[in-house]
Amino acid sequence: MSTLILTGSDLTLEDVHAVAVGHRAVSVDGDRLAQVRATHERVQRWGREGHPIYGVNTGFGELAHVVVPPEKKTQLQVNLLRNHASGAGKRLDDAATRAVLLARANCLVRGYSGAGEDAVALLVEFLNRGIHPVIPEQGSLGASGDISPLCHMALALIGEGRVVVDGVERDAAEVLAEKGLRPLELGFKEGLALINGTSASAGTAALAAHRGERLLRQAVFLAAVFVQCLRGSSRAFDRRGHELKGHSGQIAVADALRGLIEGSGLTREHADLMKDITERSGGLSEVQDVGVYIQSAYSLRCVPQILGPVRDTMVFCRRVIEQELNSSNDNPLIFDTPEETFHGGNFHGQYLAMASDYLGIAMGQMGVLAERQINRLVDPHLNGDLPAFLAWNDSGLSSGLSGTQYLATSIASENLDLVNPASVKSLASNAGNQDVVSMSLNSTRKALTIADNIASILAVLGTCLFQAGSWVGPDRLSAAGRHWHQMLAKVVDVYQDDVPVQQLVDSVRAFAADREGTDFFARAVAL
């Protein structure tokens, strides 16, 4: 894998995933480094000359009215990191931590923050050498940036705090010395430049959005297998009807479903349903129940109308998150003269907070649909010719896959709590200076949790569909369905009460998450 070159302007969700999860190497564009160097030198000169600039020679937050003499430049910045490193809770995992480091480096590379090239270089070294600062997940208001988590990140750069290397938590100063890396000595504004931005929220949001898109492709594919196993009508996916509604996501999902069920020996054509009803009714004039449904239940028929909005929401969220990743999101921003310095609020995370809440709602809806699809597969009153609870034999003696539904229903219910938006739950802080805050990191952390929950629900759905597909005959599935069933058959067997059912679900989840599974769903579902 080639090295990712940071320019501050073209970082994508895929790039964040490649660096955070795949440990892709990182370097910095030379022209951008020149801009970083020039801006840093300008700020250092202004600091020595005593130009009043926030965070250069003033206190922070509500203490911005206090002027600090130049000789205390480093103490001012170090104190800021120490007294705002107030996080609590579990640490961000390695992938999330790497995403945060990458997002902050990409912001600084733009050259408007005032951090020097040594700071950028050390962030890159941390990424390339697998040095991960211990960043507690709680403590950010998402306004004035993600101050607390980024302080924990920045402390490691100056040789304080803790880091994780190869899964072992260690003292940062010890690791820096061992790796031959010099701790950063902070100049004017440099501590503030490292922490006064949205990078913790942006990095974690990028991971959540990337994972959400993968889960959506999986959900669409499994919906196609679901329609086949329950012998649903293909008519609901006719492009003409969806074009009359006009939403691009709905049309895209319907197109994908049509392709995925093509050639199936299980789906019903609308003309055949009409013929069957006519034959059963016998042309009689009285009301009678012919036992044939002219259209399918919503969990089959309305998949484009349910997952289409999910797709469109994810398109919007990607745009917002990638814009934030490639933004100058701190304060103040440095231009050519002290008087032009931008004292604003680009650190405010409202865009990320709202986008992540939308993302959480969209993924939560995926879970609602998948759980109802699971219910229809196992419920003997709804699942047609499939066995009760998908028990392979001796129903009653065996409860089949009924236990897996409990997991899916429990998680789907949990998601209903998690999708409540954090972005509107502002509480004032900092003596009223931060009187409207975004809570963006709360939103992005919830989105990550929801994504993890959806992966579990889809694993249950995949387990049930493998069992159902085995029952109706894999050879009757569409070509795409048969391929999926064959791949999954390499890692799981039909469930016959021979092992705890959790093992089966875990194997299906692992298949969907590994390279082979994700590549398969990406090729099969174009949205």
SS-based class: mainly alpha
Beta content: under 5%
Please give the CATH architecture of the largest domain.
Up-down Bundle
Task: Report the span from N to C terminus.
Answer: 26 Å
Q: Major sheet, described briefly?
A: 3 strands, antiparallel
Name of the level-1 CATH class of the largest domain: Mainly Alpha
* Strand order, sheet with most strands: 4-6-7
Number of DSSP E strands: 7
Helix content: 55-70%
CATH topology of the largest domain: Fumarase C, Chain A, domain 2
Radius of gyration: 27 Å
Weakly predicted, low-confidence segments: none
How would you spell out the order of helices and strands?
EHEHHEHHEEHEEHHHHHHHHHHHHHH
**Shape estimate:** elongated
CATH superfamily of the largest domain: Fumarase/aspartase (Central domain)
Task: Please give the domain count.
Answer: 2
Mean pLDDT, all residues: 94
How is this fold's topology laid out?
Elements: E1 4-6, H1 13-20, E2 26-28, H2 30-49, H3 73-84, E3 88-91, H4 94-109, H5 117-129, E4 131-133, E5 136-138, H6 147-157, E6 162-165, E7 168-171, H7 172-178, H8 190-195, H9 199-229, H10 239-245, H11 248-261, H12 270-281, H13 298-301, H14 303-325, H15 350-378, H16 402-418, H17 440-472, H18 479-488, H19 501-513, H20 515-524
Parallel strand pairs: 1-2
Antiparallel strand pairs: 3-5, 4-6, 6-7
